[in-house]
Amino acid sequence: MRKIFRELLSIEDARKKFLKFFEPRPLSVEEVPILDALNRVLAEDVRAPIDVPTFDRSIVDGYAVRAEDTYPASEVKPVKLRIIERVRTGEKPRKRIDKGLAIEVDTGAEIPAGANAVVPVEYTEEEDGWLLVYRRVSPGANIQYAGSDIGRGEILLRKGYLLTPRDIGVLAAIGYSKVRVYRKPKVGIISIGNELIPPGQELAPGKIYDVNTYTLATSVIENGGEPIIIGIARDDPEDIKAKLTSALHSCDMIITSGSSSAGYSDMLYRIINELGEPGVIVHGVKSKPGKPVILAVVKGKPVFGLPGFPTSSLIAFRTFVAPILRKIAGLPEYSGKELTVRITRRVIGEKGRRLFKTVSIH
Question: 71 is in which domain, residue-wise?
């Protein structure tokens, strides 16, 4: 029995109707190692438990001194200071700087107590345990103070933030080995059609390669989800039902492509209604391409039936699936760039339907 689209909804009305039956929200929280946290969404604010750096340190190779001891220094009449210790990076100074003393420090080494400046090594010379300083320095010169990068208690990253490689470094800098993030929604992907075969197999007459599994799976990744490839379902009610049932048990969301239109073999909407309430919410939108889109909810999980034609499927994903998926993943809404351009050929749309065209911008 053929399905006739009796009630086509606008894209806006279709979204509103669907959201009456399903409220997208982030899933549970999990703790993951920071090496696994790239492109994950923070589930809580991150507040620094320590100062970074945790101690005052030298930013040059040189000598820790009291700045006031160097004020008389000049190229022709250097100041003479006694060297009492040498501190390498990672070592703790054991002695204190007093008047007339100096301690050699490496870049990154801790500043000894009593010192308030570092003279770069290129402005000095050593002579029998004494330091000759040929240029004066000001208080604070060549010192990075504790907390100058990150202050203890400072909120560094906010809840809902998408972690980048820089942020992973920040987490490492404050001693985090793990971080709490939202669980990625698992999205089951099913391509439907007797004509489909996986890439890599030899094409038989009448067969085509399955494109949608791969464009949809990578689109899911791009929008914060974890794709679960359920596989290709044949145009057989039992096969489609079995794969949908499997996806409902293991996934948070299901996306199918194909078998959503009004042809005799397109039976998806009936099978979805058999699997649980409320079932199909929207079947058909005022969009070209993308008219036969199915928006459904089964046992509390969203199910999207997208057209089989790859371009139509991808447009429908971006229009209906991506906004819902991003909210479940904890991501902000996608804000694409809008451009007004002049087209080089005439485009004729259909009254009452939104027209999408793929273009190349030069």
Answer: 57-144
C-beta separation of 312 from 293 below 8 A: no
Pair 195, 226 in one domain? yes
3-state secondary structure of 169: helix
Question: Using one digit for the tens of pLDDT, what is the confidence trace for 242-268?
Answer: 999 999 999 999 999 987 555 544 689
Mean of the pLDDT values across residues 8-32?
Answer: 94
CATH of the domain at 47: 3.90.105.10
Integer angstrom CA distances of residue 222 from 40, 112, 127, 310: 11, 50, 63, 17
Per-residue pLDDT at 245: 96
- DSSP per residue, 203-240: PPTT-EE--HHHHHHHHHHHTT-EEEEEEEEPS-HHHH
How many structural domains are present in the chain? 3
CB atoms within 10 A of CB 188: 25
Q: Are residues 140 and 245 in the same domain?
A: no
* Tokens at 161, concatenated: 């933030």
Confidence of residue 172 (pLDDT cuts 50, 70, 90): very high
* Residue 81 forms part of a structural domain: yes
Query: Residue 34: which residues within 8 A CB-CB, separation 6 or more?
Result: 168, 171, 172, 176, 177, 178, 179
Q: State whether 196 and 328 are in the same domain.
A: yes
Indicate whether 3 belongs to any domain.
no
Q: How far apart are CA 102 and CA 130, in angstroms?
A: 9
pLDDT at 61 over 80: yes
